[in-house]
Amino acid sequence: MIAGALTLIMATAANAGNYPFEGTWDCDGSEVKLTSETYSFGQQPTLTISEVVEISDTARGVMFTDGYRIAFFDITSSSMQWHSPASGDTFDCKKTAEAAPETPAPQEQQIAQDAPPAPEEPREQNSALRYPFQGEWTCADSATGEALTDLSLTENDVNIAFMGTRISYEKVSPIGRNGTAFNVVLRDGQMGGIYELSGDHFLLNFSGLSLSCER
């Protein structure tokens, strides 16, 4: 097939095994679940897949109905790399379970034989800071967009406005290799995950909430 051409095919969209990335994966400590129709990352809302791009025999690009996109590289039956072109995050993933069979009605899917856009370079962070997520943030519900709280993140603790409390960090651990994702354990035992960190935005999983935070 000529590179760049789009081929429309008729397929049974959600039968397990359609795509090599289907299954449940441990991606540097975060659980990722993939079927041929849906994607979930940790506690974030489940996204619906709109298009799958065949980059090579062992690589796929995935676009979602909200415009977000990711890519999977070096896919085998037991491992792959997860990559976000938007943030530059790259995680090593190990398969923990196969995808469960599903039987929805057939639908038309689009598979492209073209490479996805080149990943954007992560924004330069302030090297004087101990952690690149330090600062003042306003966080909203990722699903509804409703503003929920202000966060003040320092090198030692977090002040959560809606809880009216300041909690020290017990441990801060980077996820992946790009400095744009972190696991944060608080002294009171609560845990949070910071993902796709840039100079003015990150995604936060905390206490069962999925938040989108802006500086």
UniProtKB/TrEMBL annotation:
The residues the entry assigns to the signal sequence are 1-16
Kindly state which keywords UniProt assigns to this record, in alphabetical order: Signal
- UniProt keyword Signal, yes or no: yes
Protein name per Swiss-Prot or TrEMBL: Membrane-bound lysozyme-inhibitor of c-type lysozyme
The organism that produces this protein has a lineage beginning with: Bacteria, Pseudomonadati, Pseudomonadota, Alphaproteobacteria, Rhodobacterales
Instruction: Name the domain of life this protein comes from.
Output: Bacteria
Q: Where is this region: Disordered?
A: 86-126
Q: Where does the record place Low complexity bias? A: 98-110
